[in-house]
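User: Earlier you gave me the apo prediction for this protein. Now I'd like the version with flavin-adenine dinucleotide bound, so I can compare the two side by side. Same sequence as before, with the ligand SMILES added.
Assistant: Got it. Here's the input I'm using:
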Amino acid sequence: MSETGTSVVIVGGGVTGLSAAWWLARSGVDVTVVEKGIVGFEASGRNGGGCTHYQSPLFHEEQRLWPQMDELLGYPTEYRRGRIIFQVDPRKERFHEGLGLRLPKGYDWEVLDPRQVRDLVPLAGDNVVSGVRLHFGGHANPQRTSQAYAWAAQDLGVKILQHTAVSGIATAGGRVTGVETAQGTIGCDALVVAAGPQTGKLLGMLGHDLPMAPARAEMIVTEPLAMMPFTGVDGHGLYGRQTLRGNLAYGGGPHEWMDEVPFDREPPRPSGSVTRNLARRVAELLPKAAHARVIRSWAGVIENTPDGRPVIERLASPDNVTVATMSSVGFGLSPASGHAIRDLVIDGTCSFADLSKLSLKRFAGLRADWREHLNWLPPQPSATVAIPPL
Ligand SMILES: Cc1cc2nc3c(=O)[nH]c(=O)nc-3n(C[C@H](O)[C@H](O)[C@H](O)COP(=O)(O)OP(=O)(O)OC[C@H]3O[C@@H](n4cnc5c(N)ncnc54)[C@H](O)[C@@H]3O)c2cc1C
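And here is the structure of the complex with flavin-adenine dinucleotide:
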């Protein structure tokens, strides 16, 4: 343990940092989480709650852990297993064929006809063209889950410093020795940077270039409706869930590219046009909910890397730094990303997945104008881009 502080400092009290804190504390490590605002107040508490990332190297661990998380954490996440994806555009009647090619072997799923979709999702209408049911994956409540990680970590002795922004990183002899805050320097033996869209800026302080493009995304929530037999329903470019109280909570493109997010910026606010667009598409997906009033909406920042995949890596230099930024899939993967970070910090390697595809090295040859090249630029004044549904 460092003479001036703690063994491990984690910058970022979102689900990635909190899960890592919990995993490290379970292994007896002394951890301090440093959060510039309130835990889970950024993307981690504002997302769609989807936990179905079959294209990630962390997928198997994601699927293994979610059904156990309430018990492991000791607090509710409201996890529910399974997804139904259905389409209402006749051109997408055979979408399951492409999806089937991408789904991992060994996980059950089935094609549903429109009647079967309506039996499980009574708010669907006569416009259903086809569906699939995944007997894996699922969804959870982002706010509940963020809080559950924080409480579970604190139960194991983790210190969480809220309203404490990290403004600098102290190094000596080629290693990180602490983080600088307005309240002083917090010493550490190892550092985890899990600061969402600000991760690139913090890594820049250590001389690393982590290319990231933040985007603003929105969610809407309707008034409560009668509970459906199945509550995790995607399609029509939307992702979402029915909450335990019956509200429909939905998000999905278009997402709006942003300039770099400064440390002191408040989360963005929803815009009327995206909110209306979401409400219209929810009514198209679930016509029997078309009468429901939208009672809440919010926006959050998605932390995109150029290939849309996370970066999870223990750096070669300084070698006591582990970085994790999740590129739009961080909520569902959080039980697994925390485990991976724990392994990297303690053992230097991940015990359950090959993380080579998530290494920062893959961006070594990236062209300097990659954002312009991908047209991932802030609105001028109204450019938007659709990010495919989960
Ligand atoms: C609308 C929306 C819908 C989404 N839907 C899904 C979904 O269905 N499924 C899914 O898996 N993912 C989804 N995502 C993405 C997911 O929310 C993120 O990938 C995930 O929350 C990232 O978690 P994180 O802890 O890495 O980052 P964040 O939640 O961004 O947390 C990082 C934390 O670091 C703090 N921080 C930053 N800089 C500093 C500093 N200098 N000092 C101290 N603290 C600092 C921030 O305040 C923040 O609390 C969605 C995102 C949005 C916005």
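For your comparison, keep in mind: The chain has two domains: 5-65+142-210+307-364, 94-133+214-304.
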